[in-house]
Input
Amino acid sequence: MMRVFIDTDCGFDDMAAIAMVAARPEWDIVGLGLVAGNAPLPAVIDNAARMSAFFGWTAPLHAGRDRPLLGPLVTAQDVLGEDAMRSAGRALPPAAARLSPVRAHDALSAAAQAGPLTLLALGPLTNVAVALLADPDLAGRLSHIVWMGGSAGAGNHTAAAEFNAAVDPEAVQVVIESGVRFTMVGLDACRSVPVTLAEVARCRGFGGERAETLADLLEGYVRIAQGRPMALYDPVAAAALVVPDAVPCEPAHLHVECAGAATRGMTVCEFRLRKATPNAMVARRADAGVVIDLMLDAFASASRRTHP
Output
């Protein structure tokens, strides 16, 4: 089995992405690092506990940073709801948070010492940057980082910046400068995977209360777009990990803007290799059918669970 540590800010699409990886027998999730982003850290921890109980995930939960490296936390609660799990009805059942005493950055370093390790990062890169700063040898021990964040074009949090990059651009800079093998799955790829109420209906078709809960959460997510198709985000990064051919990538020189009133958090991708040496692989499109099927297959499997 291949080992993966997942760092997440635990909104709906994070849940879907983790479920996709957990459904693959060739991947072993060795830990979940929790970071503030979509919502403040206490909400992220609560969501992680609920998700783990609902899906039966056994990976330890490691609390991480509750704010960016610099400046105050900005969340996506205005879009995603107070708990970042907007729903058309049902919510995941409450569950006790069984947090590991090991902080997320220390857990990541320890996991990388134990053997080959890939990191799937689904939120701001704050925990990852802290781990790299605290353990300078970590970059050499990590096999690969796959990150959902950034954009080769327009942003979504601002005109220039994607949300995860905008929350903590200094953390993105630390990760890029570490020299670790790095893949960015940004808005360009994610916007090529739209979901609609048709996918909600497919989920309801699995039958049962658990399927209805997942369908309500998916519908709440779809309705964020107010009648238009809604882009999937974190599941595209999960697909890049488990079925790489579904999310083709191109080499690029990646730079993050940490200053500028209008451009802070902007990820500048230079694909003209004669202009700059590549330091990342960047996804610009994805196979929507493959990504959506992977997500719904994971939801179908969860719907068949007999407990909790």
